Amino acid sequence: MNLIRNALRADSLGLLLVVLIGGAALSLARPEFLTAYNIDVILVGFSLTVIYALGQGVIIAIGHMNLALGATGCLVAVAFGGSMQVWGLPVWAAMLFGLLIGTFCGFLNGWLTHKSGLTSFIITLATLSIFKGISLGITQAQPFYGVADSVKAFGSDRWGPLPETLLVALPIVIGVALFLGKMIPGRQMLAFGGNPNAAELSGISRARMVILAHTLSGLLAAIAGMMSVARLQLASPAIGDEWLIASFAAPVIGGAVLSGGHLSVVGTCLGVLIVSLINQALVMLAVDPFYVQVMLGALILGAVGLNRLRESRLGNAPVLRLS
Amino acid sequence: MNVTALSTSSRPSPPAGEREPAAKNRALSGFLGSNIFGLIIAIAVFVLLFGLFANGFLSKVNIYSISRSIGINGVIGLAMMTVLVTGGLNLGLGAIAVCSAMVVGWSLQNLGLGIAPSLMIGVLAGAALGAVNGLIVVTTRLHSFVVTLATMSIFFGTMILLSGAQGFNALPRVMTTFGRIRMYGVVSPLLLIMLLVAAILYYIYRYTAFGREMLAAGANPFAAKLSGLPVERLFVWCHALCGAIGAIAGVMASVRNGAVVPSMAGPLGADWLLPAFLAPVLGGTLLTGGSVSVIGAILGTIFVEIITSGLYMLQIGEFWIQTALGLVLLGAILLERGRAAMALQRSTRR
What we know:
- The structure holds two protein chains of two kinds.
- Chain A is mainly alpha-helical.
- Chain A has a domain at 38-246.
- Chain A has 14 helices and two strands, in the order H-H-H-H-H-H-H-E-E-H-H-H-H-H-H-H.
- In chain A, helix 2 runs parallel beside helix 13.
- The two termini of chain A are 37 Å apart.
- By secondary structure, chain B is an all-alpha fold.
- Chain B is globular, with a radius of gyration of 21 Å.
- Chain B has helices spanning 2-10, 24-32, 35-53, 60-84, 93-109, 115-140, 144-163, 173-178, 189-207, 209-219, 221-226, 231-257, 273-282, 294-313, 318-349.
- Chain B has one domain: ABC transporter involved in vitamin B12 uptake, BtuC.
- At the A-B interface, helix 5, helix 6, helix 12 and helix 14 of A face helix 7, helix 13 and helix 15 of B.
């Protein structure tokens, strides 16, 4: 009983068990699950999803939300592809351009949220349609195909047994973990998320925290957007359309509390793994892809329910609304 | 803190226009500075601009099509408004609407029921799905954002699995011709349905104890609870109301399309989110809960549809319209905040 209770309390142990048991069950049911090709597919998907999941995670950490995450990724992807195809920029310049756009989009979200004092939900709903509209308007809903060969190669190349995208994702994951765990602005962000008023009274600037978190989210969305371009080998304005649910599911499965103040990077990674396991299982067992939707929804509900249970054990007051 | 909160929420301030006569002047200046007045002016300005510069904007066909979109999107906005009352929201509104419309189609085509019972079943289905959201929100005490994020994919996914993503395209002729009726050449009957829904909601929120209780519970759940209101049950009702009105919107959209199409509200029904929030937010409904403005929501919808149609007529491309609507939402929010800050400044100076 004690063991179970402790496992419940730990963010990642239970999740790790779920991943291992799920993986084992799947490889028993479908031996081809453990083939190199299949694991590769999972890892490539993982590298992309974990970046935008963390992009949502850093916002969840301060108790906000970013609906415009996918639209930011989309705008960056379009800018990245378009600047290479239309302006003929070299890859590094296009990447810099993309990163700038994403960071600016995030900054805009944070600045507007702070200035208006409204919930980030409505602000990012507005910027979602602005960013998405711009991406669709520029491209007229047609993808840019003129992506540089080195970018395409990056999306499909291997480094030993590992896909190259994973080699980009891992340092980013570690960077975010260090930022939130060890660095002062990161700790301040979590403190601010846990109790904004207390944090402000102890000298943490509300404006800085809100803008920092949103900017970071924009930056991560930008990286994910460009990674999608590498993976798809084209800059499609449909990139980011299906990020929303998974971007909330992974951190929440990983133990993040939506009212803020807590984000487990390891948990988020395991959450992403669980999401990709489900995806993979449903593909391999040849069931309708819409089961993925149903499963993801059920998983979010289960996970937030569990988090809520844990939270009330820890003695936190129940929160009825996000402010 | 609880004591003061209790006293303000147990006596909700009367709506504008019902204030004591001494404050008539203030009420008038309040109206001149209100969303409703601003929206009327904005609508007039844009009608004039588009009428002058957009070819065909004032043609009968276009006015008819605007009236039809106002009908449908107005009901979508009103549906979201009923749940904004709780200080929460419903991301799954589009999903519920499509699910309910599919239930209506199924009942008409597969069960062979008549139109009236089918519509009834559809609205009940919408209310039931909404109530499920509400029940999960109040029992788990989770924010409705994450609950409805989860249920929208559950509802929509289940509906697709059950229906095999096949719509219902053999709707009875009465329904499809209803969608094509032109009253006086320019008015769609869908607009009248929206006005009916709005009138009912206006009545509920203004004149019934049930409506006042929903507002009180949303304005300050803790205070309302202390003053003896069944806050949890009221919240479930709000969500059920949202689902039921969403179902009406789903059927209206199907009537316009002439068929029930599972993809009519985009993937997971998420394409309806922008119109759903635009109308009530432009109309002055607070996202923090406890306030509604039915007339504001209608004016908000009219404003949005005029902008959409006008930009469409100016041929700036449909994708840029999305950008424009986002800017409108952003502008309205910021304007509202600026006005609130100015009002505060003025009152403190006095």
